[in-house]
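Class prep. Sample record?

___
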Amino acid sequence: MSRPLPPLRLLQVFETVLRTGGAREAARELNVSQPAVSQSLRALEEHLGVRLLDRATRPARLTEAGRILRQATLDGLGRITEGLDDIARLGGIADNAVTVACSVGFATYWLMPRLKGFYAEHPDITVNVLTSHQGAPPLAPGVDLALRYGPGTWTDGEVTLLFEERVTPVCTPTYAAHLPQDDGGLDAATLIHVDFEDPRWLTWADYLRAAGPRGTRPRPGLHFNNYVQATQAALNDQGVMLGWRSITGDLTREQRLVALPLPPLEPEDGYYCVAWRQSKPRAAREALRAWLIASAGMGDF
C-alpha cells in the first residue's frame, strides 16, 4: 500500500523556502507569518518522521532526506506545471509567456532596462520576472530561466555564460570631486557596504586586501543587505560603493557614477543564464534566452 502523502500545502511551503532562500522570504511570498512557515516545516518533518533541515548550521542545510524530498517535490510540481501548460494549449491559450528568476539588484539595474529592447523585437511575448533577495535563485516549477552569479558549475540546468564580472569602487562625480586625489581618496570616503551571506560577493575587506592602496583598511560606513539600497545610497552622494559590472555598469556609462582611480578586480565567477532542463524548450523561452546572450555579448555596460 502506498504511503499517505503529506498535505500539498506543506510541500508548497517546503519548496517555497528552498526557492526563496529562507523562512522570512517564503513567508513574504506566501503572505503568512514566519512562525507559520516554521510550523509547517516541522509539521512536514513530523509527518515523514525524519529531519529535513539541519538547524545546527547557519543557514540551515538540507539533510539527505531533505535533498531527496527537494528533488521529488521539484519533479512532481514540474510534472503538474507541464500538465497545466498542456491543458492551456488544448484550450487554445497562446504559449507566449516566459518566467525568469534573478536577484533584485540584477533585475533592477541590468535586466529591466534591457527588456524594452526585447519587447520591441518580440511584442507577442510576456516576460515575468521573479526576484530573490540575495544570491543565485534556484530553478523550480514555473521558472524557465535563472540568471545567476557564480562559477557556472550548476547541474540543474543548461548553463551559458552571459558575461564576466568586474568590480570597481564608484561614486557620483560630485562626491568624487570632494575626495583627495592620493590613493583614490578612500581614506576620506564613507564606504558603502553590502552584507551578503554568499562569500563569492566581494566585500570591501576583500577588495582592499587584493587591490587597494597599501595600508588602507575597511572603514565604518553604511551597511545594506542588497545592492538596490546600496546603489541608491551611492547615487544620493552618501559614499563610495563597490560597483559590479552587472549593477553599476550602465550607471557608469551614463556618468551618473564614476570609477575612482583604483584598479578593478575581475572575480573568477561570472553571470550565467541557466535554462531548467525540466522546462520544455518553448519558443518564448528560447527567444528570451538567445536575446539575453546576444545582449550581454554587446558589452555596452
In short: Residues 64-90 form the longest helix (27 residues). The chain is about 40% helix and 20% strand.
